[in-house]
């Protein structure tokens, strides 16, 4: 059986491993294909494809777009988007701009709380020089907090400061998930609602599907078997696609493998033809 894991992060966003390393791990896990789905960027895909050709692993070009609805973060996965599409690239650049404003806001909040952390420090953790298309995320801020001894683990950084409702949390207005679905379609891709079990907003997931989203990530590292079954049925009842992803990020200090190792959740490779259609 040919299996695919459709959701992994690399150093182009908040993953800890280079795109080529994700592809190597996919091969070691015996996968036929691996999705590269970094937050608000397609910067990791070229390297992954080169590695994929060398190693005999198919690379599924993707992106995970950060959106919000009623103050809740909702992630929309896009597959087989035309990653040279200038409109898409401009839209992703605007996403990264919002992200930078967001990161500055979080850092300002941390400063107010008496932690003199700087953007330069966070960029150093992320390995950014400042001019690329890679994104900086909260896990990088969390790791910077660990390095300066403000907390003892990435999880503690989220639990104490960075998670929604915690004192350093800040989220500027985001595009809606409906808009992200449209962006992906306009770039020729298929749109899939990422990890619906993390939202507690099933009516929104259903509305997204009815509004044109192409599928649901029913199988995700943080979903129970019951949740997977529930979302599989939700998608199938509407004739939508059912996808699977580990949401691999690598292992951060004291954080475990977030959300799971490559190949942790897989779906039959037959899905690729439907995503490409
Ligand atoms: P960002 O897109 O910068 O807001 O960062 C989102 C990422 O942070 C997610 O993809 C997860 O990898 C991580 N994350 C979000 N919430 C938590 C949490 N409560 N604990 C640990 N990691 C989290
Ligand atoms: Zn992430
Ligand atoms: Fe996500
Ligand atoms: Fe993700």
Task: Provide a compact summary of the structure.
By secondary structure, this protein is α/β, with parallel strands linked by helices. It has helices at residues 19-28, 45-55, 86-112, 119-126, 138-147, 154-162, 177-186, 202-210, 225-237, 271-276; strands spanning 3-5, 33-36, 58-69, 72-79, 190-193, 215-220, 241-245, 251-252, 256-257, 267-268.
Structure description:
This protein has helices spanning about 20-30, 45-55, 85-110, 120-125, 140-145, 155-160, 175-185, 200-210, 225-235, 270-275, and strands at about 5, 35, 60-70, 70-80, 190-195, 215-220, 240-245, 250, 255, 265-270. With about 280 residues, it is of the alpha/beta class. It has 2 domains: about 5-85 and about 175-275, Metal-dependent hydrolases (TIM Barrel); about 95-160, DNA polymerase, domain 1. It has an 8-stranded mixed sheet with strand order 7-6-5-4-3-2-1-10. A two-stranded antiparallel ribbon has the order 8-9. The chain is globular.
């Amino acid at each position: 059986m040919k299996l695919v894991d459709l959701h992994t992060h690399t150093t182009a966003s908040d993953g800890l491993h280079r795109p080529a390393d994700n592809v190597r791990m996919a091969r070691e896990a015996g996968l036929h294909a691996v999705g590269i789905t970094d937050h608000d960027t397609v910067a990791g895909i070229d390297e992954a494809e080169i590695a994929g050709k060398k190693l005999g692993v198919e690379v599924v070009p993707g992106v995970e777009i950060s959106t919000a609805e009623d103050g809740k973060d909702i992630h929309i996965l896009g597959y087989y988007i035309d990653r040279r599409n200038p409109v898409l690239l401009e839209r992703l650049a605007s996403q990264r701009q919002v992200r930078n404003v967001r990161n500055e806001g979080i850092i300002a909040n941390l400063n107010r709380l008496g932690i003199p952390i700087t953007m330069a420090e966070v960029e150093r953790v992320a390995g950014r020089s400042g001019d690329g298309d890679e994104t900086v995320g909260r896990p990088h801020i969390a790791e910077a907090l660990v390095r300066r001894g403000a907390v003892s683990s990435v999880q503690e950084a989220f639990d104490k400061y960075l998670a929604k409702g915690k004192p350093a949390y800040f989220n500027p207005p985001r595009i809606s998930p409906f808009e992200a679905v449209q962006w992906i379609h306009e770039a020729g891709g298929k749109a899939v609602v990422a990890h619906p079990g993390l939202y507690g907003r099933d009516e929104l997931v259903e509305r997204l599907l009815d509004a044109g989203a192409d599928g649901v990530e029913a199988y995700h590292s943080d979903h129970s078997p019951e949740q997977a079954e529930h979302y599989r049925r939700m998608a199938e009842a509407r004739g939508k696609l059912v996808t699977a992803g580990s949401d691999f990020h690598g292992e951060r200090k004291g954080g475990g493998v977030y959300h799971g190792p490559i190949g942790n959740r897989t779906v039959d490779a037959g899905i690729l033809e439907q995503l490409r259609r």
